[in-house]
Amino acid sequence: MSTIRDRGLVKWQAALIMPEHKALNKKMGEVDYFLNKKLVLDEYQVEEFENNIHYAMEYHLRLSFKLHNEGSPYDLHGYCVYIHPVTKELRIQKKDSSFGYIQFNEIIDVIVED
């Protein structure tokens, strides 16, 4: 008796596919898989972030930002010096006295440090 040999998903692929196409499909799948999606914040979280930032600016306290940039989160620490009212861009003075600029919509979390 003969046994049925199942090839899995390979049987549904096109018969004439170039190696470049196969490598590109694999690469696109890996990129989408490993990217982290940005969290959707509700209006209460946004209001809390704004309150923390204004409080820290008023009393000159250090802030710790968790930011989302193109799929990978990173941290930024410093003092918020200025907020542009139209573009909602924050100017952050870092520890080495250099300035960093961040958009408000990149913020995932804001913590006021004492």
Describe the protein in words.
It is a single chain. The chain is α+β, with helices and mostly antiparallel strands and 114 residues long. It is 29% helix and 32% strand. It has helices at residues 19-34, 43-59, and strands at 62-69, 72-83, 89-93, 99-103, 107-113. It has a five-stranded antiparallel sheet, covered by helices on one side. Strand 3 and strand 4 (99-103) form a beta hairpin. The radius of gyration is 23 Å and the shape is elongated. It starts with 18 loop residues before the first helix and ends with a strand.
Describe what is shown at a glance.
With 114 residues, the protein is α+β, with helices and mostly antiparallel strands.
Shape: elongated
**Element-level helix/strand string:** HHEEEEE
- Strand element count: 5
**Please, what is the average pLDDT?**
84
Strand order of the largest sheet: 4-3-2-1-5
Q: Determine Rg (CA atoms, Å).
A: 23 Å
Distance between the termini: 77 Å
Break the fold down into its secondary structure elements and pairings.
Layout lengths: L18 H16 L8 H17 L2 E8 L2 E12 L5 E5 L5 E5 L3 E7 L1
Antiparallel strand pairs: 1-2, 1-5, 2-3, 3-4
